[in-house]
What we know:
This protein is an alpha/beta fold and 472 residues long. The chain has 2 domains: 77-366, Alpha-Beta Barrel (TIM Barrel), CATH 3.20.20.70; 388-464. 48% of the residues lie in helices and 9% in strands. The protein is built from 20 helices and 9 strands. The protein has helices spanning 9-12, 15-27, 32-43, 50-58, 62-80, 119-132, 150-162, 182-190, 205-211, 220-224, 226-232, 249-267, 296-309, 323-332, 369-378, 388-391, 396-405, 408-426, 430-444, 450-464; strands at 83-93, 136-141, 172-176, 196-197, 238-241, 273-275, 314-317, 336-338, 382-384. Strands 1, 2, 3, 4, 5, 6, 7, 8 and 9 form a 9-stranded parallel sheet that branches. The chain is globular and about 60 Å long. The chain starts with 8 loop residues before the first helix and ends in an 8-residue tail after the last helix. S-adenosylmethionine (SAM) binds at residues 102-103, 140, 142-143, 176-178, 198-199, 201, 217, 243, 277, 279-280, 282, 285, 320, 360-361.
Amino acid sequence: MYSVMSPKAEEFINDGEILETLKYAEENKHNEKLISEIIEKARLRKGLTHREAMVLLDCDIEEKNKEIYALAKQIKLDFYGNRIVMFAPLYLSNYCVNGCEYCPYHLKNKHIARKKLSQDDIRREVIALQDMGHKRLAIESGEDPVNNPIEYILESIKTIYSIKHKNGAIRRVNVNIAATTVENYRKLKEAGIGTYILFQETYNKKQYEKLHPTGPKADYAYHTEAMDRAMEGGIDDVGIGVLFGLNLYRYDFVGLLMHAEHLEAYKGCGPHTISVPRLRAADDINPDEFSNGISDDIFAKIVACIRVAVPYTGMIISTRESKETRERVLELGVSQISGGSRTSVGGYVEEESEEDNSAQFDVNDNRTLDEVIGWLIKMGYVPSFCTACYREGRTGDRFMSLLKSGQIQNCCHPNALMTLNEYLDDYASDTVRKAGKRMIEDELEKIPNEKVRETARKYIHSIDEGERDFRF
Length: 472
Ligand code: SAM
């Protein structure tokens, strides 16, 4: 039985309800009246149910699809403005005891180089990341209770926060590690993490079990209920996602939205972010052997439909996607991207040879962070290194209240400009610096509150004089 309030995975992600939803959407994909009503509801910016969103995803009336895309762009602009938050992944260890069929870190892969960063290695990696200009990291690790126990992750977080190299600082560490216990989530919270991220991979239980034949991750319920435990442990910013390509995208799209509905209903706050990774080639992984790959057009439609269905949830895209795809989905809803990423263990300090490869997947966008920043500025986006909300305690529903209050332009916008100015002063190339400084001048004018605008101007001047870390 489907129940959004149930603590049980198979009840809040209910197979019967998903299949009925898919049938309903299929039957209504040319139903112009219903589709128009759903679009009108979405215009209220209060979100859509999984059923409504699925009808929009299936909709095959060209005119209506144009409306959906236009609305996604408008909602993106209204909620997130032209700011794009920047982050980088940091791979700590690729030791793993799981059997995930799509991931080269699976236990049976004897070919891949196994590496684990020592605290000294982490220091070097973090300095390299700080020297690029990053302020926000997502740490990644395989699941291995012996090699990567929670104590190792906690110690690594402490190390990362402690490093202050020149003007560099990592101000927010998000964590992408395997599902764990409430007690461990509590420890992560105490260590000061930002978002806890865990991809569901697929919401289809049968397919999930096929793709995860061995190891602790094989337990569908334990994995699916992880966010409930994380929230119980005090983490109120959680990030969900599916790995598109593993299963029918329509099924997983519904599952993803049902998960968001569950967290909102059961825990009082929906997910902070949704990630939309697509399967990539990797050491012993060939994505062509998976039959559920999705086209760029469907990918764009998924992003647009997520944007209108959950306007308050940030959307993340990584360097798994090419420059062109990233460009396309940025305007449709993506609010956070990585740049200059390495998916290997130790890859920021040292480029790996082919024999020594420890990477999780091939990166599609190989540009440097400076190139990505220059590209964003050229397109009119403000790259933001802001980490203020979480440091000011604006997490979970408090962050959502800020979003809903309409004060974003007086808070996030100046914070984005100030952190961009830090980047320009400390790390940018001359061309990017010039373009960025011009952008900051123009964008300061868009801060509605005069007092905030003047304070931001003053802070930006102080940054040019050498001071750092201002925030609203
Ligand atoms: N081991 C942890 C877990 O079990 O969730 C941490 C996650 S892993 C380091 C990060 C994510 O990379 C996975 O959740 C998966 O979705 C994704 N991933 C794995 N193999 C991939 C591939 N071949 N292409 C693209 N993404 C992949």
